[in-house]
């Protein structure tokens, strides 16, 4: 079973949205301008920014746009995002926002289910994968094309 791990809330006016959620629920909202995103903490976090309490989740906020869901979205933690995308399509779902890497943290995509609901999926990047990718990157250093790719 793959659990709900995160939520996203789109906004039109960041300051109004931040004030609303902070004043009503006491949430802490941390802008991440380099990602055009804002982390939303609904519960205390550890040094890795993971919820300290079991069964509680944090989320984020982004400027409403045509690429992402226009409505709040729950995000499901999956073991393999590529396999989940394949299963979603096979079951009649539609990928509405393609698999995208989010920094060194993981991969995110959004989909529309067979009832028209938009949800997100998330796969964390495992430490082993990061070490392997870093090692491969070091081994390929100097072999990249002028645009930084390795084709």
Structure write-up:
This protein has 151 residues and is an alpha+beta fold. It has one domain (4-139): 2,3-Dihydroxybiphenyl 1,2-Dioxygenase, domain 1. 23% of the residues lie in helices and 34% in strands. A hairpin with a 4-residue loop joins strand 2 (28-32) and strand 3. The termini are far apart. Residues 129-151 have low confidence and may be disordered.
Which helices and strands occur, and which strands form pairs?
Layout: E1 4-11, H1 14-25, E2 28-32, E3 37-41, E4 58-63, E5 73-77, H2 81-90, E6 94-102, E7 106-112, E8 118-124, H3 127-139
Parallel strand pairs: 1-4, 5-8
Antiparallel strand pairs: 1-5, 2-3, 3-4, 6-7, 7-8
CATH superfamily: 2,3-Dihydroxybiphenyl 1,2-Dioxygenase, domain 1
- C-alpha geometry: globular
Give the quaternary arrangement of the chains. single chain
The stretches of 5 or more residues where confidence is low (pLDDT under 50) are: 129-151
According to CATH, what is the topology?
Answer: 2,3-Dihydroxybiphenyl 1,2-Dioxygenase, domain 1
Our Rg estimate from Cα atoms comes to 17 Å
Find the count of extended strands (DSSP E, 2+ residues).
8
- Total discrete domains: 1
CATH class: Alpha Beta
In short:
This protein has three helices and eight strands; from the N terminus they run βαββββαβββα.
List keywords for this structure.
alpha+beta, eight-stranded mixed beta sheet, 8 strands, disordered C terminus
